[in-house]
Design goal:
Layout: E1 12-17, H1 20-31, E2 34-40, E3 47-48, H2 49-56, E4 63-71, E5 77-84, E6 101-105, H3 109-118, E7 122-123, E8 128-129, E9 140-145, E10 151-156
Parallel strand pairs: 1-5, 6-10
Antiparallel strand pairs: 2-4, 3-4, 4-5, 7-9, 8-9, 9-10
Helix pairs in contact: 1-3
Length: 176
Amino acid sequence: MTDRKAIRGIDHFGMTVPDLEAATRFFEQAFDAKVLYDNITRTDPPFPGEAGSTLVGMAPESTLITMRMIQLGNGPGLELFEMRGPDRQPASRLSDFGLQHFAIYVDDLAFATERFVATGGTMFAGPNDTDGHEKGEGHVWRYGRTPWGSLVELICRPNAEEYEQHTPFRRYRPSA
């Protein structure tokens, strides 16, 4: 028997954006994001795709220009990448393979939606009540698209959820 653990939780998510500064402003204005640090700045030599293809799966003909870690509330970090290169693909849709969205926990969905739209995002239909195992009083969600096309879910789950009646395990819920 050992007390070793394979994981503790999600540390960060990565997102490629067309313009690092514009994306940073969007997250600052929409969600009060804070810049933690830049791993690669515009004054650093760009990171070539030939090296990145074996390290992180970059297309060999691409170049990593800038890289920044930001913090959204007290949840996992969001690492922003600005890259250049031919043959780039648009942001994923929910129906595409791969990581296609991340959710930001909010206390006031209407206010978060207002800020999201005011900073250039577009929202899909909603607000929507959660259902199924996520059902709970006051539980709402809504999807939106950033100005560069990435999907973001705004979610509020202030009370117990249906699934909690059937298991001692709990989803992550940020503290205030």
